[in-house]
Amino acid sequence: MATPTTPHAADAAAFESRTMRKVGLRLIPFLVLCYFIAYVDRVNVGFAALTMNHDLGLSAAAFGLGGGLFFVAYVLFEVPSNLAMERVGARIWIARIMITWGLVGIGSAFVTGPLSFATARFLLGAAEAGFFPGVILYLTYWFPKAYRARIVAMFMVAIPLSSFFGSPLSAALLTLDGAASLRGWQWLLIMEAVPAVLLGVAALALLPSRPAEATFLSPAERGWLTDRLETERRAAEASAAHHAHGLAAVWAVLASRQVWLLAVIYAGSSATSNTLSLWMPQILKGFGLSNLQTGLLNMIPFGIASVFMIVWGLRADRSGERIWSTALPLALTSASFALTLLTGSLWMTLVLLSLVLLGNYAIKGPFFALATETLPPAQTAAGIAAINTLAHLGTGAITSLIGVLREQTGSFPVALLPLCALTGVGCALVFWIGRHQPRAATVGATPSIARG
Question: What is the SS3 assignment for 276?
Fold first, then answer.
């Protein structure tokens, strides 16, 4: 029998598929572009460093410290930013974040030494704080839980794509050295920050806050999606009626063993993403390559990872399985890091770093699906923000440590060993979660979605 907001039951699957396809096509490409630019602005200093470090007198330790300070600010401002988004609405707050980080990114082109470089990185972290967990939360306003692993994977594919497309672009911008009395690295930072400001303005027009505002859906589609999400929300609230709220809920999240375990797991992935985006151009340049050759070779691992990330996310949703889908990529990442100690070959290093990134980006979709399905429903929003925040504390520490180890040992493989250890520990913790919360390994996809 038909419902007021859907066609006949025989057409329900087609109706659902059509509705979710509309939502995905309307929101995901724009959000991916925004995150792409955000990540380019976060990691383009890795390419700028090829000439900037000499100009500013930055040692490896000073460069690593600046990279770490980005995450200190990110951590300090992330949860308040996410709470502000709840108050003012996703559209306005996401736009605010993008415009702010674009302006700070432009200003970063005019640093003059280690102190101003460190300050600029701190301010950029403060400006970007809240964007990623804000978007993850925003996606829960639009996508039922059965879709979230693939949607998160599609959104987060912007991370490897930022290095895939950004590497040759950054190398090309370095050739503008001397134009208008600016160094090439200054042109790089300016030109790659301007799109953030433009996209921030565009977000005000292109991002509706909730499905009820979605003029691109028909009334029946809006009604069905609103009802579906509301049904899931009520079910979650009913199962979480005994949980605390308000400030007590925040303390409950911080006291949650589950949150801390998930944060340690994600810290390995987050640190790997950010560390290699910052340091890989220098790793490759160390083999005697030109800036352009470095840019072209840097594309390869990130391009492979971009494709596999989507494939793995789709597989995780179709199977509904989360534990192995999260643990296996972490194991591959850890093992590949360890093997870099055994080679001094450019090509073997490139193969191993490709495997590192293939595993590292494959984890993204399944991990956040695992997190949203294992956290108590009343803690999901704050829990996601806390996991991302705590993980970035580890990322900041590792980024700074790698700079120190690189300066002390002169070896990038040795400097990367903390990442090998952290991803290995993360893999073990995923299995621990699977053993102690077996439900988490199987939820996530309804039978019809799993077959789709």
Answer: helix
Copy the structure tokens of residue 140: 């829960």
- How is residue 292 written in tokens? 């352009």
Distance in angstroms (rounded) separating the CA atoms of residues 400 and 404: 7
Rounded CA separation 211/362 (Å): 29
CA distances from 331 to 47, 204, 335, 356, 394 (A): 29, 41, 6, 9, 19
Buried b (16+ CB within 10 A) or exposed e, 378-387: bbbbbbbbbb
How far does the chain reach from its first CA to its final CA, in angstroms? Answer: 23
Here the tokens at position 366 are 């399944």
The Cβ of residue 226 has, within 10 Å, a number of other Cβ atoms equal to 16
CA distance 399 to 422: 13
> Residues with Cβ < 8 Å from 272, sequence gap 6 or more?
333, 356, 357, 360, 419, 423
Residue 423 backbone dihedrals phi, psi, to 5 degrees: -70, -30
Residue 202 pLDDT: 94
Q: What is the mean pLDDT of the chain?
A: 84
**How far is CA 177 from each of CA 48, 58, 173, 439, 450, rounded to the nearest angstrom?**
11, 19, 8, 56, 52
What H or E segment, with its residue span, contains residue 135? helix 131-140
Q: How confident is the model at residue 133 (pLDDT cuts 50, 70, 90)?
A: confident
Q: Which helix (H) or strand (E) holds 241?
A: none
